[in-house]
Amino acid sequence: MGMKWEVLISSFVIVFGLYIGHYLETSRDLENKRREQRVEMLVKAFQNLTKIYNHDILEVKEDMQSALIDVQLLGSPAQAERIELYVKNVMKEKRQVWDDFDNIVDDLRNDLREELGLPEIKGKVWWIRIEKAQEATNQSSQPMPPGK
């Protein structure tokens, strides 16, 4: 009779151990998937936010609006607070408030770098705006009609 109990208890321990191992592996996989998705969305938000430095704001307004929403959804509480401050200042000033915007981008950059296991970068994000040279208008070799 004692041998049956030992086999039953051993079987239970093995099955329970397998269940716990599977549960922990599934939880870890789910957490990694959430992390990957969060990082992917925040990298896209970072890229969309940085478009404003090189484009007219009206050209990238949808990207910017989407990025601000994504950061408020998936970013840190401090990042959401920075966005609130930025939006309030823009509404109050009726113009772009670059210092607030830079703080959002810098904080998001460092948060993503930490998430990816990269060291923090001190200082502001640097930008360069490259524009096409003004193209000369094509001029006709024929004389202009009078009055034009």
Short description:
The protein is mainly alpha-helical. The chain is 66% helix and 0% strand. It contains 4 helices and no strands.
Description:
With 148 residues, the protein is mainly α. It has a domain at 36-122. It is 66% helix and 0% strand. The protein contains four helices and no strands. Helix 1 packs antiparallel against helix 2, helix 1 (2-50) runs antiparallel to helix 4 and helix 2 (61-74) runs antiparallel to helix 3. Mean pLDDT is 83; it is low at 135-148.
Distance between the termini: 114 Å
- Give the number of helices: 4
What is the helical fraction, as a range of percent? 55-70%
Shape: elongated
Largest sheet: none
What kind of assembly state do the chains in view correspond to?
Answer: single chain
Q: Would you tell me the structural class of the helices and strands?
A: mainly alpha
Using only C-alpha atoms, the radius of gyration works out to: 28 Å
Q: Say how many strands there are.
A: 0
Order of helices and strands: HHHH
Low-confidence stretches: 135-148
